[in-house]
Amino acid sequence: MSARSPRRAARTRLQVFRVVVLVLTGAFFVVPLLSMLDFSTRLFNADGRTGAAWALLVADPLLRGAIGTSLLLSLLTVVGMLVLLVPTLVWVRLRVPRLGRAVEFLCLLPLTVPPLVIIVGLTNVTAWLSYLFGDTATWLAFLYVVLVLPYAYRALDAGLAAIDVVTLAEAARSLGAGWLTVIVRVVVPNIRTALVSASFISIALVLGEYTFASLLNFDTLQVAIALQSKSNAQESVAASLASILVAALLLVGLSFVSGRRRTGRGAVAAGVAPVPAGTAPPVPEEPR
């Protein structure tokens, strides 16, 4: 009994420490958000609250168009990133593993170059993109794919390192599958969590990107928020808070979907687990 008491006391202190850290961390994130909500709904000339700033998020044509542009750019960036990186990384692991370091260097290179330098260095490229696609912000997705490469590469590389890609590909090829089938129906389902992580990182970066769009004179969400802050600070803060909440909800949604699929796949794998040689297969119990 005397030996359990110090152990129980230590466990209690650890639980208290965890709760304190959790509360302080939550306050660190929640207090600024509550302050933003308070400022965006405050009436400065009278008592009470107003939702006028939040209503402008839908009524203001500049902000509404900027939100649509940023969401479209997020979708195009995710698609471009997955189409570029997934086949490349799978092919490097299967066929040319000696190029793995070179591909890693190229993918991480944008992390070391400031966005302003990237824009200046890609002046000719942006001129050609503007000439080919016109005065539309959609071609910014090509630049955003370069911007998200370092983060998406890390997520996808970790997912591929967690599975035996070579064995899976050889097994599928021995059954007559083509390379497209190997990638789409064998490799991709096994790295679904990595795909979700890379997609979320890309969406978060695109929704928060300001330098590229501002220097190229496109009205994305962050550019519109910066412009609105000069004329209507409450609307700007409301838009900032809304973008944070949307990103948080997106993270929770993607994590929930990924968790449900992983749980379902784990249950199926347990149900079809191979029986060791020399042992009788389990007999299901009859319902009583």
TrEMBL record:
Domain of life the protein comes from: Bacteria
Protein name: Spermidine/putrescine transport system permease protein
Entry-linked InterPro entries: MetI-like (IPR000515), MetI-like_sf (IPR035906)
Major localization listed first in the record, in broad terms: membrane
Swiss-Prot/TrEMBL keywords: Cell membrane, Membrane, Transmembrane, Transmembrane helix, Transport
Subcellular location: Cell membrane
Transmembrane domains' residue ranges: 16-37, 71-94, 106-131, 137-153, 194-216, 236-257
Keyword Transport found: yes
Keyword Lipoprotein annotated: no
One of the Pfam families matching this protein, by short name: BPD_transp_1
Family under the similarity heading: Belongs to the binding-protein-dependent transport system permease family.
The ABC transmembrane type-1 domain, residue ranges: 67-258
Membrane association type: Multi-pass membrane protein
Upper classification of the organism: Bacteria, Bacillati, Actinomycetota, Actinomycetes, Propionibacteriales
